[in-house]
Structure prediction request, 71 residues.
Amino acid sequence: MTEPAVRDAQVRQIGNNTCEHCAILPLFEVGIAVVVDPKVIDAWACSGWDGGDIGHTWGITACKQAQPCGK
Prediction:
Protein backbone atom coordinates (compact mmCIF):
# COMPACT_ATOMS: atom_id res chain seq x y z
CA MET A 1 0.00 0.00 0.00
CA THR A 2 1.51 3.24 -1.07
CA GLU A 3 -1.38 5.63 -0.48
CA PRO A 4 -1.07 7.02 3.09
CA ALA A 5 -4.83 7.21 3.76
CA VAL A 6 -5.42 3.60 2.70
CA ARG A 7 -2.41 2.39 4.67
CA ASP A 8 -3.56 4.34 7.76
CA ALA A 9 -7.05 2.83 7.55
CA GLN A 10 -5.62 -0.69 7.24
CA VAL A 11 -3.23 -0.25 10.19
CA ARG A 12 -6.04 1.17 12.34
CA GLN A 13 -8.29 -1.77 11.45
CA ILE A 14 -5.54 -4.24 12.39
CA GLY A 15 -4.84 -2.37 15.64
CA ASN A 16 -8.52 -2.21 16.62
CA ASN A 17 -9.02 -5.90 15.86
CA THR A 18 -5.94 -6.86 17.87
CA CYS A 19 -6.97 -4.71 20.83
CA GLU A 20 -10.56 -6.01 20.88
CA HIS A 21 -9.77 -9.69 20.49
CA CYS A 22 -6.37 -10.64 21.79
CA ALA A 23 -4.25 -7.85 23.21
CA ILE A 24 -3.45 -7.60 26.90
CA LEU A 25 -2.62 -4.10 27.99
CA PRO A 26 -1.01 -4.04 31.44
CA LEU A 27 -1.97 -1.02 33.51
CA PHE A 28 0.95 -1.24 35.95
CA GLU A 29 3.89 -3.42 36.89
CA VAL A 30 4.83 -4.70 40.33
CA GLY A 31 8.53 -5.33 40.82
CA ILE A 32 10.00 -8.08 42.95
CA ALA A 33 12.01 -7.16 46.03
CA VAL A 34 13.62 -9.80 48.22
CA VAL A 35 15.35 -9.20 51.54
CA VAL A 36 17.31 -12.01 53.20
CA ASP A 37 19.03 -12.33 56.55
CA PRO A 38 22.78 -12.91 55.93
CA LYS A 39 22.96 -14.89 59.18
CA VAL A 40 20.67 -17.49 57.62
CA ILE A 41 21.02 -17.19 53.83
CA ASP A 42 24.44 -17.30 52.17
CA ALA A 43 23.23 -16.93 48.58
CA TRP A 44 20.03 -17.07 46.57
CA ALA A 45 20.10 -17.42 42.81
CA CYS A 46 16.65 -15.96 42.12
CA SER A 47 15.95 -15.83 38.41
CA GLY A 48 13.01 -13.47 38.89
CA TRP A 49 9.30 -13.76 38.29
CA ASP A 50 8.10 -17.31 37.75
CA GLY A 51 4.51 -16.64 36.81
CA GLY A 52 2.70 -16.18 40.07
CA ASP A 53 4.91 -16.42 43.11
CA ILE A 54 8.44 -15.73 44.23
CA GLY A 55 9.63 -19.30 44.08
CA HIS A 56 13.08 -20.58 43.24
CA THR A 57 13.62 -21.88 46.76
CA TRP A 58 15.85 -24.60 45.31
CA GLY A 59 18.45 -21.91 44.60
CA ILE A 60 18.90 -20.94 48.27
CA THR A 61 22.25 -21.71 49.91
CA ALA A 62 22.10 -21.72 53.70
CA CYS A 63 24.78 -20.33 55.98
CA LYS A 64 26.12 -23.40 57.78
CA GLN A 65 28.28 -21.73 60.41
CA ALA A 66 27.83 -19.86 63.67
CA GLN A 67 29.24 -16.60 62.25
CA PRO A 68 27.22 -14.72 59.63
CA CYS A 69 28.15 -15.55 56.08
CA GLY A 70 30.10 -12.58 54.79
CA LYS A 71 31.16 -11.42 51.45
Q: What stands out?
A: The chain has one domain: 4-62. Residues 46 and 56 are 6 Å apart (CA to CA). DSSP finds one helix and two strands in the chain. The helical segments are 4-21.
